[in-house]
Amino acid sequence: PEDKFMMQVGTLSGNPIAAAAGLKTLEILKRPGTYERLFADGRKLMEGYADVIARTGIEARVVGDAPMFDIVFTGQDVHDYRSSLGNVDLLRRYGALMREKGILKSESKHYVSVVHTDEDIRFTIDAFAESMAELKRGG
């Protein structure tokens, strides 16, 4: 019989170190209060961002759920993929500004972690406010 090959990729595929890290992560997530804190911290960030957006008057929306959300630069409601694209030029500039201020975020989302502290949340909201002020000035 002919040998067949099927490519399979995944986050923890075949890597014992990644698998051990994944198991430890699951152990930590099972600790009482972990998800409550994760969601509460995410809500603090989302509310802080929404407040900054309201104060600066930049057309943007905070969308998603507390542990994983993003900013869409649009004045319209976000209800599907097409409306979630918003102004991609502003999104790219925003991402660069946040990185300059010490906030590493993916190109498309903010991920909240159980290791983030109240100080981290304040630092992030301050960096967001500075970034939005720069965008408002055309930076």
By secondary-structure content and strand pairing, the structural class works out as mainly alpha
Low-confidence stretches: none
Order of helices and strands: HHEEHHEH
Strand order within the widest sheet? Answer: 1-2-3
Rounded to an integer in angstroms, the radius of gyration calculated over CA atoms is 19 Å
Major β-sheet, in short?
Answer: 3 strands, antiparallel
Overall 3D form = globular
Question: Percent range for helical residues?
Answer: 40-55%
Number of strands: 3
Overview of this structure, please?
With 139 residues, the protein is mainly alpha-helical. The chain is 53% helix and 9% strand. It has helices spanning 16-29, 34-56, 81-84, 88-100, 118-136, and strands at residues 61-65, 68-72, 110-111. The chain has a three-stranded antiparallel beta sheet, with helices on one face. Helix 2 packs parallel to helix 5 (118-136) and helix 4 crosses helix 5 (118-136). It starts with 15 loop residues before the first helix and ends with a helix. The mean pLDDT is 91.
Which helices and strands appear, and what pairs or packs with what?
Elements: H1 16-29, H2 34-56, E1 61-65, E2 68-72, H3 81-84, H4 88-100, E3 110-111, H5 118-136
Antiparallel strand pairs: 1-2, 2-3
Helix pairs in contact: 2-5, 4-5
Give a short synopsis of this structure:
The protein has about 140 residues and is mainly α. The protein has helices spanning about 15-30, 35-55, 80-85, 90-100, 120-135, and strands at about 60-65, 70, 110.
Structural key phrases:
139 residues; mainly alpha; 3 strands; 9% strand; globular
